[in-house]
Write a structure and sequence with these properties.
- Pfam families: Tail_P2_I.
- The chain is of the alpha/beta class.
- It has 2 domains: 52 residues, no CATH class; 183 residues, no CATH class.
- It is built from 8 helices and 8 strands, in the order αααααααββαββββββ.
- The strands form 2 sheets. Strands 1, 2, 3, 4, 5 and 8 form a 6-stranded mixed sheet that branches. It has a two-stranded antiparallel ribbon with strand order 6-7.
- The longest helix has 14 residues.
- The radius of gyration is 24 Å and the shape is globular.
Length: 236
């Protein structure tokens, strides 16, 4: 690959000889290129910043670098992408997500890409807070978000809140709750507010439920078919 076409591709792809053929095809198709040494090419579209990424075919080891390149690493979504497919989808949607960053659509879409069901209610909607430029968001987690850890835990709570901070409208304050929902007729949610409040309530029913396969521990006082609700809350 010549130096001229080296500049078309990002550093991580320049060393791959397979992209030489793609560079040659680009030349044959007449992709515009402004040569600083040639007055005849001035004013043409400069492709020096063109990023050619075959995300679906990229090796898994390259995905973190792609995430960093497209600014979806860390709290921007990467830490909550639980599998390879979600990581690739997040990278592919990165440009669109950043284009609409700060909107309700971007906030709901990034959660959708990550496979997290949410309930979002803005201040002006029915049952909303009524306080201008605020919203309330409830995220329903499952045991796939942080494998090997409790379904609800402080680390997950902080990661979810960190992503909301990255995507939400800058002027908006919000209330945040996180809960866990299972296929079985049981819901369990931990409660935390400002690291100072733990609150939980349970209502027991005598009818038996199907056995749980999740690593969930309940107090002995609860009967099998239990509905347990609590909330991890944050008001910012």
């Amino acid at each position: 690959m010549t130096e001229r076409y080296d500049r078309v591709y990002p550093p991580m792809l320049r060393g791959d000889a397979r992209f030489g053929a793609l560079a040659e095809l680009t030349r044959r198709l007449g992709a515009p290129y402004a040569d600083p040494d040639s007055a005849a090419t001035q004013g043409q579209f400069e492709t020096g910043e063109l990023l050619v990424y075959l995300v679906d075919n990229a090796q898994e080891a390259l995905l973190p670098r792609l995430a960093e390149q497209f600014h979806v690493s860390g709290d921007e979504g990467w830490l909550l992408a639980s599998d390879d497919a979600k990581r690739r989808e997040l990278i592919k949607r990165a440009i669109e997500l950043h284009r609409y960053k700060g909107t309700r659509w971007a906030l709901t879409e990034v959660f959708r890409v990550l496979g997290i069901r949410i309930e979002l209610k803005e201040w002006w909607e029915a049952d909303g807070s009524g306080q201008a430029y605020t919203f309330d968001l409830t995220a329903w987690a499952n045991d796939n978000l942080l494998p090997g850890q409790a379904v609800l835990n402080p680390r997950l709570y902080q990661r979810l809140r960190g992503m909301i901070e990255q995507v939400k409208p800058a002027r908006s304050a919000y209330g945040f709750k996180i809960g866990a929902a299972f296929r079985q007729p049981l819901r369990w949610v931990g409660a935390l507010q400002g690291r100072a409040l733990n609150r939980a309530d349970a209502a027991c029913r005598p009818n038996p439920a199907k056995p749980l396969s999740q690593p969930l521990r309940l107090a002995a006082a609860l009967k099998p078919r239990a509905v347990m609700r609590a909330y991890m809350e944050s008001n910012r």
